[in-house]
């Protein structure tokens, strides 16, 4: 008759036994407390409450939780706003604003970089044209103040149209002069017709 050899149960590690001991002790205490109440139907509800409280205390003592754990919010590295190339004309127009740039400021800046005074004149409001006198006088003024600076890029930062119809818009120009590249902010004010009232 074949014999079955008794395999020795694997011995648990010392940390596991240390961890199990307080659990077994708490369970035994719960059983001892609840058993007298279970024998009496009248106190069965009390026994159930005591069991639940004891179970909750046990889980709290062991650092357990009945609530699902959620991963901590992941922090995203702060990044600078990316520039979007609007068109490839010269100088090119880029933007960081979700709103489109008005046409007249861009046309004015591009015409100025190409010494196209006629196009610059067409972007001015009627009031400015009257104040300048004529396109010829305006051309003389532009020619006398012309520099060797070359606009490489027009960055549209943003702006808005106000309640009275006038608008204010900001740009940053990347300018190259004598081999050095620098950036210069300008603010353009438009009338309700979208023509330039002032450039600062």
Outline = elongated
- Domains (count): 2
Helix content: 25-40%
Provide mean pLDDT, rounded: 76
CATH structural class of the largest domain: Alpha Beta
Number of helices: 6
From the N-terminal CA to the C-terminal CA, the straight-line distance is 108 Å
CATH architecture descriptor name of the largest domain: Roll
Proportion of beta-strand residues: 15-25%
Strand order of the largest sheet: 1-2-3-4-5-6
Based on helices, strands and strand pairing, what is the structural class?
alpha+beta
Q: Oligomeric state of the chains?
A: single chain
Q: At the third CATH level, what is the topology name of the largest domain? A: Nuclear Transport Factor 2, Chain: A
Please tally the β strands and state the result.
6
Listing every helix as H and every strand as E from the N terminus to the C terminus, the arrangement reads HHEEHHHHEEEE
Radius of gyration: 40 Å
Low-confidence runs: 1-9, 75-80
Largest sheet: 6 strands, mixed
């Amino acid at each position: 008759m074949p014999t079955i050899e008794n395999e020795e149960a694997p011995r648990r590690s010392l940390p596991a036994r240390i961890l199990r001991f307080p659990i077994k002790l708490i369970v035994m205490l719960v059983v001892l407390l609840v058993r007298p109440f279970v024998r009496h139907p009248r106190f069965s509800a009390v026994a159930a409450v005591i069991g639940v409280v004891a179970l909750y205390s046990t889980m709290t003592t062991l650092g357990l939780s009945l609530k699902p754990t959620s991963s901590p919010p992941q922090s995203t590295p702060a990044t600078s706003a990316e520039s979007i190339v609007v068109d490839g004309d010269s100088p090119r127009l880029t933007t960081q604003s979700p709103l489109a740039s008005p046409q007249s400021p861009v046309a004015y800046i591009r015409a100025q970089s190409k010494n196209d005074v006629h196009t610059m004149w067409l972007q001015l409001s009627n009031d400015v044209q009257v104040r300048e006198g004529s396109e010829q006088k305006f051309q003389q003024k532009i020619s006398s103040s012309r520099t060797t600076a070359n606009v490489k890029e027009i960055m549209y930062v943003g702006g808005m149209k106000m309640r009275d119809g006038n608008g204010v818009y900001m740009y940053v120009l990347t300018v190259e002069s004598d081999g050095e590249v620098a950036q210069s902010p300008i603010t353009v004010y438009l009338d309700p017709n979208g023509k330039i009232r002032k450039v600062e």
